[in-house]
# Entry
Amino acid sequence: MSAITRYAAPTTLEEALQVLADGTATVLAGGTDLMPQGQDGRRPLGPTLLNIRRVGGLRGVAVDGGFIRIGALTTISDLLEDATVAARLPALATAADHFASDQIRNAGTVGGNICNASPAGDSIVPLLAYGAEVELASARGRRRVALKDFFTGPGRTVRAADELMTAALVPPPPPDFAARFEKFGTRPALDISTVSVGFGAQVTPEGLRGVRVAFGAAAPVPLRGARTEAALEGARLDEAVIAAAAAAARDEISPIDDVRASAWYRREMVHNLLRKILNDVAEA
Amino acid sequence: MVAIAKETLIGKRIPKLDAPDKVAGRTRYIHDLDLPGQLYGRVLRTDRPHARIKRIDTSKAKALKGVHAVITAEDTPRIPLGIGRDNPPLKLDKVRCIRDEIAAVAAESVAVADAALKLIEVEYEDLPVLASPEEALKEGAPVVQESHPDNIARTFDYEHGDVAKGEAESDLVYEDTFHLHYVTHCCMGVSGMIADFDEAGNLTVYSNTQVPFLFKKDMADVTGLDPARIRVIQPPVGGGFGSKLDIYPFEPICIFLAKATGRPVKMTFTREEEFVGSPTRQPVVLTLRSGVTRDGRLTFREVRTLHDNGGYTSWGATTPFVIMQTISSLYRVPNCRYHTDVVYTNNPYAGSFRGYGNLQATFAVETHMDRMAEALGLDPLAFRLQNAHDPGDVTPQGMHFKSCGMKDCLQKAADASDFVAKHARHAAAREGAGRVKRGIGMASMLHVGGGAKIHKTDGCGTILKIDDFGHITIMTGASEIGQGSETVLAQLVCEELGLPLSAVTVINNDTEITPWDVGVHASRTTFIAGNSAIRAARKARDKILAAASRSFGNGIPAEEMDLRGGYVVRDADGEPIVEIGKLIRSLHFGEKNDLVMTTEYYEPPSVMQDRHFKGDVSAAYAWAAQVAEVAVDLDTGIVRVERVTSAHDVGRVINRLGIEGQVEGGVVMGVGYAITENLQVENGRVLNPNFRDYKLVTAPEIPEMDLIFLETFDGEGPQGAKGIGEAPAIATAPAIANAIYNATGVRITALPFSPERVYRALREAEGPA
Amino acid sequence: MSLKHEIAFTLNGEEVRVAVPVAMSALAMLREVLGLTGTKYGCGEGECGACTIVVDGRSMNACLMFAVDCDGREVTTIEGLAHDAKAAPLREAFVAHWAVQCGFCTPGMIMQASNLLARRPDLDREAIKRGIEGNLCRCTGYKKIVDAVAAAAGNDG
# Structure
């Protein structure tokens, strides 16, 4: 564990970005992932520990500039209690409801969940289904990255060491947009996803448009399923289409065997969860 | 004064005496205690399941600032501990299990101690790892314990009747093999201890032990100290469930560190260490053959079990004592044979855990019973009732069921859950549409309910005094481990002495005050300590009434008096004669000065089993039947337990709240055993030493629970009660297994019923797609 | 060895000022620095809830929180709740329903339940169970805990 030589808890974004500028700071938000990772040495906390929780303007959900803007410090509980999320992003609300425990939902943040880059991150999968982007800021400027391009490996992202994630930006779903999130688990929450599946598409009389299918814990990073999406794009949901899409999902993921499940079982569950989602959308 | 009516505390909903402090966060567990000048001890555990120790170098650790002592086996007496005396506290030449203790550090802080552990260099020569009993029994397998070159730690053989004759009488014979897994206690408070020597060399240990008096003896054996100079103080315990029945290496190590430093040393585990370094339930492979006549009468039963003993022998190795009871005596089995091999491996070793082998045995027997019932075309309830025991039965193993509510338990659980109709309905619905299938299953159990004479005594002492203001102090050998024993003992004593619960203090945590007891195990505390306390109270009562008759009675004989509401009263009409405190003051200050202070050593009328394992080992036997109702999701394999109906022959309810709490907690522990809990051990290593991946049942997962208490008023029991501590966890898994079968037509013979295992079994039953 | 940082916050209604190592958890600060041992260590990973405290009106796992992040905030532990008259009905319900056995999970359970009731006084049994899903109990099977919280919520019918 590298020693912490500096602790900063700024209240403005500008100060935070200054602290980050030399690229040596570890960012602390809710702390729910960072604390155990720091204590067992998986993630060094030093030399600078930057606590961003007091930075103004980073918490809350707002419709802003053509996006639904979810500030990086928005807690998972905030998502659950937010009227915009409930009305416009119900699959994200579902994911928030299946997220860890009340105590962790109260502390954990959307930015932390995304930047921790766990393949099982529960908020990430629905945000992929909604086509979200990540807003990054640094002393050098700002940029936006599509969430599907954000992850480079377990715990790794394209965020540069001097950058701070400031928000997730979600394009407002059109009125005919259907979205779903399904997490496999024996418990309602308090469960690292064995697998999870997100789905989003416009449901039109001619068929599905702009299909997005996302998987959690099915590969080294949360990811979109291009072949599954192709099997659904433009299609009407009948039994054959659903079976083909579920089979495509099962075949295109690359899960692992671990203490939670075998790769075989994960493939089966992705297949069955997607089939359940598509049946549900077809019946709606 | 107005007359005082007779009131009883028995069967009431009495709150737990220690609850107000616990809800206020005032209760100080071992983790919360600190002694002045205390150091912190930590243990270096090996990361090799099986290896020779070539070299240990502690010099860098010793040089670290803040380190007061670093010890290895070289610094200790090297006397092995555990019931097999095969486990040296610190390992000298070889490690046999990943929890093995190599060295220990005492330092100014936990952080310094942990840093010192990292500086200890150990060089190993790895040995082949025996990851299963099957491997360990192979010809030429490496040897785990040199004292046992065949790797067989123990064998057990039991027989009654003539199995060959029974088989000849059978119309049908069935054989099943069951695989039972590792689970562990998961006490919410991690293990810990504080050792403190005074200047005269007397040792005080603050310990979580469930067996304080045996602990003194065992600790003296291992450390070479005089047991007369060891005092055991037991702070409140954050859960027991059998885990604190043996001594474990960290405990003498803590003492060695205190001795080496001359300072108090405190040791507490991390949660990961608790998973890796504390006992488990013993994994068992159990093959069971039974015969029946066509009309449903059991003819014989033959069982072979293979136990994974791990690297050392703790109480897990003796669970065959209990397994054979269920095999031989849960039902009327005229001919029976049982053989067990307990085999050393390089896996974690098992201790005692609530139910003590009976979860494994009952899972096998009761799943097997269901399978036979179906093959015979009999209703599972009727088949069980046909073979169940009646009061008065003495089984061939020698158990005398003086009270026995088994048939009532079965019938009442079935009636309350509408078992027979639902069982038929769900079976008929298997082939229908719908991806969630419902099922109902039943299982019963037998367990000791009046102690278990596994030592030459199964007794418990009580010292009881009443002071000059009518305050009772009960000094009992029986430990409180959260189950509520102190409340029950207080109730039983107040019932005899007519004083309110607010007038009682129970002292149960200091071997220099409390009288001897075997320990908290075998569901024995209410029965044994309860009888002991009642008898001590009756002696006090006799003394009070005799004095009252002598000094205040105006010629009323003692036998016509009673104690009620803090007074000696006339039994016939409740007319107060004298206040109890006043009477006792009269004894203290009177002409013949005396105390009201009594003692009792209660020894139950049970016997130790003979060398053939026969004998009436308990003074009473507890019975239960459980019905589980499940929903099985065919698309995921997830089994939800929706309802458990649990009917118990408890003898008599002493405290309705307490007994409900025991049963509810036990049922949920049984659900965990059946479905969610699985300590995954691969090549000797624990893969999931955390609550993230070792899944205890959480609140949203609990079933609805319908509890039925049958009162059979056991003749020997305190107020007619029997022990209940272990019973509720025992029959849950087989009831769930039978319910899954009822729902799906798929019989799964290995635990746990994890979603993946169930899904795989369902898919395999479907055949190739 | 490690950098210390001075913080000031409200603890159980009183102002405290303390210097803590930057990497220290709030749990270690409460237990080891401030001597408040009612908050328990159960796992150190936010999986058991034994260390539940309330920070700015929201329950949290003290083991996952950095002590320095308490700066300027309002923190309540079981020691504070034990003297809060508003929480008396909940504490009494835990006692009356035998919602306590070994008691090790109890402080965290009470902190969580009391915070739930403060936020949503009308909880039904299912919502109570979900609300305490992050609090493990090995003794009770949870039923009597749910009974107690429901009674305190006036929902035990």
Q: What stands out?
A: Residues 93 and 151 of chain C are 7 Å apart (CA to CA). Chain C has six helices and five strands.
